[in-house]
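Lecture notes, part 5. Sequence design as translation. It can be helpful to think of inverse folding as translation between two languages: the language of shapes and the language of residues. The source text, in structure tokens, appears below.
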């Protein structure tokens, strides 16, 4: 089950957009009862933290890794490395656990999940955008990834 390495970028984009959209939905549903300027600002802060401190760096790191593969065809799960799959599994487990136990109030879920989901979705969009760039520009003309 091997695919071209550039298609790993698209696969990563689709996975992150789907995960981000789901988390965003979980946050938006209860948000209607808590929509205030303060909560909107807190969601924006959560978004900025996760995007600038984690996900933008992650997208860059994985894009460099994927485009650096020597063989053109790669196993389809290589859009992430082992560490990233473990982190994703832990995040999912913690998120499900927080919601299932009811430890966090709905306002926290609304604010935090909206910011986190938006950042995850943007990571997916960034992977997809990079994939489209790789389709448009021949490899010989492409600048190395930052």
């Amino acid at each position: 089950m091997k695919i071209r390495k550039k298609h790993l970028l698209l696969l990563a984009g689709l996975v992150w957009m789907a995960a981000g959209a789901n988390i965003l939905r979980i946050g938006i549903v209860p948000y209607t009862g808590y929509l205030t300027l303060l909560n909107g600002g807190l969601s924006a802060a959560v978004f900025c933290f996760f995007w600038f401190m984690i996900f933008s760096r992650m997208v860059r790191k994985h894009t460099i890794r994927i485009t650096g593969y020597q063989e053109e065809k790669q196993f389809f799960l290589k859009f992430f490395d082992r560490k990233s799959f473990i982190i994703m599994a832990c995040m999912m487990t913690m998120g499900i656990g927080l919601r299932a136990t009811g430890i966090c109030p709905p306002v926290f879920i609304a604010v935090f999940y909206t910011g986190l989901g938006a950042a995850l979705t943007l990571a997916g969009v960034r992977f997809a955008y990079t994939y489209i760039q790789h389709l448009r520009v021949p490899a010989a003309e492409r600048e190395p990834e930052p």
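The translated text above is only one of many valid answers, since several sequences can fold into similar shapes. The mean pLDDT is 91.
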